[in-house]
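Exercise: predict the fold of this chain.
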Amino acid sequence: MRTNVRRAAVALAAVSALALTACEPAAEGSGGKPSGADKATAGPSKPVTPSKPATPSKSPGKGSSGGGDGSSPDPDYAVFPCSTYDVKFTATLADATTSSYLLKITNKSGKPCKVLGHPIVTFGDLDGAATERGKAPGIEDAMRLKPGESAYAGLMGGANDGKGKTVNSIAMTMNTESDLEQKPLTAKTPGFYVSPEASVTAWLSNAEDALSL
């Protein structure tokens, strides 16, 4: 009986020892150090460094020109029609038989200007003006007159058929296709016969063409 009780007590002690062993914390790593999983601790994360702002594109320098797309500016953009304030005017007899005069203008300003259409020519104290002879290019294709350059037109009074009158001067204004008030430029034309068919050519780049039309 005592032997049985002792055996039961030994068995109970063994079971208790096993239960206590199961309740202990997990074994540490080799060398008595905690394993890598136990060493990891949740520390504060490092602040994220903000990215650098994008460098803005360089703006065009002062004095840059051209359109918004980088194209070159139109060279005629700021070129205005020639007026009597921009030119000096002369009239030279070319043919007395047909009362033909060569009209000449020279750009006296310091900037280019466009010579438009035909000159507007009046005769002394007579009413009316010379009829336009031939066609003239439009404003887009008009001649560009640089400072010091000249343009020419041929003025024909017509043969003396007894139906016209004689004048000693003419006056000329430029076609500007605007309401700009101009001071007429005058030239002496002694004994210039003006018939009802008096006419004038458009402005041209050379005198020969002006007198042959």
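Check your answer against the key: DSSP finds three helices and nine strands in the chain.
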